[in-house]
Amino acid sequence: MLLRIRSKEGMSRIQVDPSDTFASLAQKIASTLKLDNPDTIAVGDQPQPDAATPIVQLKDKTIGSTDLKHGDIVYVSFPELTSTTDAAASPSSSSAPAQPQPRDASGYIPIDDLASVKQDNVDDFLEKQRGLIKRPKDSDFCRHGDNAMCDYCMPLEPYDQRYLEEHKIKHMSFHAYLRQIDQAKQTSAPSSAVLKQLPPLEEPNYKVKVPCTGGHAPWPEGICTKCQPSAITLQRQTYRMVDHIEFSSAGLVDTFLNSWRSTGCQRIGYLYGRYEPYLDVPLGIKAVVEAIYEPPQENHVDGIKLALPWDEEETMVNKVAEACGLSLVGMVFTDLIDDGTGKGTVIPKRHVDSYFLSSLECAFAAEMQKRHPSPCRHSATGKYGSKFLSCVISGDLEGNIDVKAYQVSETATALQEADIIEPSRKPSVMRVRDSVAHERYVPEVFYKFKNEYGVVVKQSAKPTFPVEYLLVNVTNGFPHEPDPLFVASPGFAVENRHAQDVGTLAKYLSSASNHEQLKKLLSDFHVLCFLATLNTLTPSEFSRVCEIATQRDVSGDILETMDGWKTLTVLLKEAEGNVRYNTPSTRSATTSGAATPATSEFTEISCRHCTFANPGGAVNCEMCGLPLGE
Questions:
Q1: How many CB atoms are located within 10 Å of the residue 160 CB?
Q2: Beta pairing partners, 11
Q3: What is the structure's pLDDT at 149?
Q4: Which residues lie below 8 Å from residue 550, measured CB to CB, with a gap of 6+?
Q5: How far is 469 from 373, CA to CA, in rounded Å?
């Protein structure tokens, strides 16, 4: 059975047998906590050290002879901890802000520290809401006054199954799921009061447990029933971390689609936005997308090649998004093939008889969700699941271009992390890997379905199983009254699709005749990202520019008071004139009027402003538009 060991070093888990003695338990505790002398350990059923009993007094007593049961918590105290981790701690670390950190090999955080986990603002808000579904007085069955209620009109819990089915809500919201499991825990048979205080969530883990308390060599040299993962039965996830994704305007998606319209190649972009409560689902969450950033990628008609992580993700783009009050909420990619009719319709590829997300896309979504976990104080590790969304733009059954949004289940992410599954050549099925001696242990994987006789059948998932068992559907749409954060139209050149340089920016901003028009032109995420690469603005000035671009009540007059903006204005004016001068016809003429062949060979000239290598004979840099001469 499993015992939870609580000490000043946090929470640990130890496997024991009822026939084990407390002396054996002391050895396992000392090994887990890296204690030199197990005889100094005291144990008890209360957190107060005064109520603990020295384990030397119990060393001959078996665990089965006590009241300890599977999952019970044992409080452990000892005089001092000789962990090499604590001994090597830097004295200067005490000046750093206190952050909850994992305290044992499993990454668990002490219960008292979970309250300090920084969650998303929408999670903090929804935790304070009761979430009851109000119902009006039933004219047929209610026989009471207006100030009373009965079973026919009393509010429902946010996880009420009948309500969800009537309103065609396939997955309950995450916070409704939290209320459901918390209610089940409180109404279950009374066990230990401490057990009821434990975090209700625990991320699935299908890896071999290392180290193991079974007394054998650690994996891969040895394995036993204590450390090997149990058999897995796949089933549909009943909840979802995000219930709806809302694009702030139709123009946002249309601009992203222009790349496919002009090239016929597929495209991927990262979605930046924010999380808000979603009123159409009890305690629901929606992701509001305000910008699509297109990272460096290699586009093909049948797919996309993308490097992860890309260089500027953390250093630039995420910081620009944070200055605008946004964060990374998901990704969107196209899967479009024109049907050749000339009507603007496309070939329908994704439907109930084929697939919605391919096995390769599911694996990619699982990897992205693992990279972007959701902080949660209701999980023993301080994180649970992910709010990262995967949107695919493809054709519906009528050939129209449509957006669909998905997540993969927590089971899918755990299977991917444990290296149990891999994409299949057939997009509608996922493949289960084979076990490899001393390298990979794969437990038994099953899934259930109804056969042609309506009987539920349990079948092995090896070698393959349908990807639908891993999918979580998310609704999507546009607001009834669009009010996007970025209002520039038409916008600035999109990064990694069109050339971006100082000359392009100068031409883009030259149409502004006053500060209000300039403020509107700056209200573009692509402009702000490019400004961040120029390094002419200080961090505080750049944050102020982002406020001007995103907040309606901040005037553009403030730009004139910034030294960095004045420097940028000078560069823009130079670049605007130099780009017009640095044309093939102008560069082919010398100062005396004699023609110079366009194919003249000169040594390459490096720009002193941006270091771009320009061809010989160029007067101004082809990258930034600034003069090459001193």
A1: 17
A2: 6
A3: 86
A4: 324, 325, 485, 486, 523
A5: 21
Q: What is the pTM of this model?
A: 0.76
Burial of 596 from C-beta contacts in 10 A (0-12 / 13-18 / 19+): exposed
Query: 290: part of which helix (H) or strand (E)?
Result: strand 284-293
**pLDDT for 82:** 36
Domains of the chain: 2-82 (3.10.20.90), 239-424+470-477 (3.40.140.10), 502-614 (no CATH)
Q: Would you state the structure tokens that stand for residue 135, as one six-digit string?
A: 């119902």
pLDDT value at position 624?
67
First-last CA distance in the chain: 78
* Phi, psi values for residue 93, rounded to 5°: -70, -15
In the Cβ-directed half-sphere of 474, how many Cα atoms lie within 13 Å?
30
CA dist list (Å): 559 to 283, 518, 541, 542: 41, 10, 9, 10
pLDDT value for 189? 52
Residue ranges for the chain with pLDDT beneath 70: 48-51, 80-107, 112, 188-197, 577-603, 609-610, 616-617, 622-625, 629-630
Indicate the DSSP class of residue 462: -
Contact 174, 240 (CB under 8 A): yes
Burial of 285 from C-beta contacts in 10 A (0-12 / 13-18 / 19+): buried
Q: What is the pLDDT of residues 473-482, one digit of tens each?
A: 999 999 999 9
Q: What is the pLDDT of residue 48?
A: 66
pLDDT of residue 64: 80
Rg (CA), the chain: 31
Give pLDDT, residue 75: 84
* Secondary structure letter of residue 88 according to DSSP: T
C-beta separation of 202 from 379 below 8 A = yes
- Identify the CA nearest to 321 among candidates 276, 271, 251: 271
Tell me whether strands 244-247 and 284-293 are parallel, antiparallel or unpaired: parallel
pLDDT value for 616: 67
Q: Which residues are CB-neighbours of 415 under 8 A, at least 6 positions away?
A: 206, 232, 366, 421, 470
Q: What pLDDT score does 605 carry?
A: 78
Pick from 438, 353, 463: nearest CA to 397: 353
**SS3 category, 201:** strand
Asked if omega into 220 is within 30° of 0 (cis), the reply is yes
DSSP state of 315: I
